[in-house]
Amino acid sequence: MDDPGFLVGQMLIAMPSIGDPRFERALLLICAHDDGHAMGLAVNRPVEGLTVPDLLRRLEVEHASGAPDELVMMGGPVERERGFVLHTDDYQSQDDNSLLISEGLALTATREALSAMANRRPRRALLALGYAGWGAGQLEQEIRNNVWLTCDADERLIFDGDHDAKWTQALAKLGVDASLLTAEAGRA
Prior knowledge:
Distance between the termini: 37 Å
Strand content: 25-35%
Radius of gyration: 17 Å
Largest sheet: 10 strands, mixed
Helix content: 10-25%
CATH architecture: 3-Layer(aba) Sandwich
Number of domains: 1
Order of helices and strands: EEEEHEEEEHEHEHH
Oligomer: single chain
């Protein structure tokens, strides 16, 4: 996490030329990255019609109706039945199962974290199903191939509810006008 070559805590912005509909206009937070692998969660891909309270009720989590009435995210195509709570670091699991991503941000994948969401203990939280994963060197190669741009993460990009605007907002952080991007490659 201390290696500047690793992208933990950074956002990935899918380029129009990504060529994979699962990541079209996707914005991902990199939660883990080292020499052997990388793992991230999409923060702007809602599961249509599935809210956090709905999912918590299905899982029989106590006080599910107290959870924020927000949409569940499709975190990525890997292990889509597995849930992850991305949250502010004012909550840490009792078993110390929370992964600190960056200052102010953590990831927990336990039932206890779902209960905490129902009781609104993290100041801000996002529930995602599945994740995006890369093998050794794969993410780095995709970045070299201009599949992804990177930008600094911020709470607004991660947690705000206007999921359709997040991709454009992330590009704007870099000074890039989304309307000028194209999937067409050219030669100079």
